[in-house]
Design brief:
Radius of gyration: 15 Å
Structural class: mainly beta
Strand content: 35-45%
Oligomer: single chain
Mean pLDDT: 93
Low-confidence stretches: none
Number of strands: 9
Helix content: 10-25%
Shape: globular
Order of helices and strands: HHEEEEEEHEEE
Largest sheet: 9 strands, antiparallel
Length: 183
């Protein structure tokens, strides 16, 4: 089945809108001539210079300058001296916003295998700094595709972001979006 690739237009919207809409979409990674697909099931939005949990809160730096650029580019950074984090830049150029991809699901032999946690996801997809600043297009080997059907066994929930307690009230904002199994 041919899936439609997401374009810059999809990402050139507010981070909170993209965060909700990206759930159920597919991250595709070309590795050694093969493609690996992961359905996105959890993300977090980081929206603008006033968002105290965002890297952009301190202004433009060498590390976060990608966030101030064009929508639809990867923002990949290193944390805790050991993990890569994968984000997609959103909103208009000059307005720093991005969506962190936190978790996904791979389907193997009809069985869903969760990849919980942003570090596990980048490790699984072999993503590192070489993708930082690249557009999310097939030519770069890492892109996003539409999925015609959200799995009917999931529902979307919102909650506070994870691991950003230093951001005070901004940590409690419901900027975490996830697909959870319906009972």
């Amino acid at each position: 089945m041919q899936r439609r690739k997401l374009t810059k237009k999809f990402f050139n919207r507010r981070a909170l809108v993209v965060a909700r809409d990206i759930l159920g979409k597919i991250i595709v990674r070309r590795l050694n001539g093969k493609t690996v697909s992961v359905m996105i099931i959890e993300v977090e939005a980081y929206d603008g210079p006033s968002d105290r949990a965002s890297h952009a809160h301190v202004g433009k730096t060498k590390r976060n300058e990608i966030m101030f650029g064009e929508a639809g580019r990867w923002y990949v950074y290193f944390v805790y001296g050991m993990h890569w984090m994968l984000n997609i830049v959103t909103s208009k150029k000059g307005y720093p916003a991005a969506v962190l991809i936190r978790a996904g699901v791979v389907t193997r032999h009809g069985k869903e295998i969760p990849i919980n946690g942003p570090a596990k996801l980048t490790k699984f997809l072999k993503i590192d700094k070489k993708f930082n600043g690249l557009p999310a297009i097939s030519k770069t080997g890492l892109w996003l595709e539409d999925s015609k059907s959200l799995m009917p066994s999931y529902r979307i929930t919102r909650g506070k972001r994870i691991g950003v307690e230093y951001a005070g009230a901004w940590a409690k904002k419901p900027y975490n979006f996830r697909m959870t199994k319906s009972e």
